[in-house]
Amino acid sequence: MTLHASLTELLAGAGILDVDVDDAVTDEHVRSSAYRRVVWVTASSASRDRDRAIVATILRDPEELVAKTAVVALVDSIAMKVTGPADFRQWSAQLLPEMDRLKAQGHRDFIRRRIHDWLFYLSVREGHMPTPIEWARVTDWMQRVLAEEATSPAALALLAESGSTRKIRNIARNRAGSLDPRTR
């Protein structure tokens, strides 16, 4: 399938009719914007049935960075919608085989790492108390997200002690100190 045909199919499937496909084929910025819109429509859908096919189509893009960025945006969006780590694990397991379409190992690893980070986030949100070793296995980005969003005083205290950067440790320490004592 050509890039033109793939884009036409993706945009039509998402109900996006105002993108000039010829422009998108020749300009990666236009294409990237189109993918962001497709991802937004896809993530907003209640059905997850087409996600793997959409990811497979996006990953055929000749500009791997554009494709990786769009897939990461979808992963981030779905992670914030699922009910818990089990749902996200099941959803992401369907996508992982598609990552082999990416030639650059770094791009494949980045997406897999992002999925791992979100699984960790969702487990903490469900009450899992991570060990310092588990904290060390997530990216600095996810440690910072959790330092900014976690509501568990124990998780924040542990992150304040073992966060990978001073900034993360300070955010966690400040948030742990400012939590409502009734939530402790």
Continuous helix count: 11
Major sheet: none
SSE order: HHHHHHHHHHH
Structural class: mainly alpha
> In what range is the share of β-strand residues?
under 5%
Low-confidence stretches: none
Provide the helix percentage.
55-70%
Overall outline: elongated
Mind telling me the C-alpha Rg?
Answer: 19 Å
Query: What's the total count of β strands?
Result: 0
State the distance separating the first and last CA atoms. Answer: 56 Å
What number is the mean pLDDT? 94
List the helices and strands and how they pair.
Blueprint: H1 3-13, H2 21-26, H3 28-44, H4 51-58, H5 64-79, H6 85-95, H7 105-125, H8 132-136, H9 140-149, H10 153-162, H11 166-178
Structural account:
There is one protein chain. The chain is mainly alpha-helical and 184 residues long. The chain is built from 11 helices and no strands. The mean pLDDT is 94.
What are the key terms here?
mainly alpha; 0% strand; 184 residues; elongated
Entry summary:
By secondary structure, this protein is mostly helical. It has eleven helices and no strands. Helices cover 70% and strands 0% of the residues.
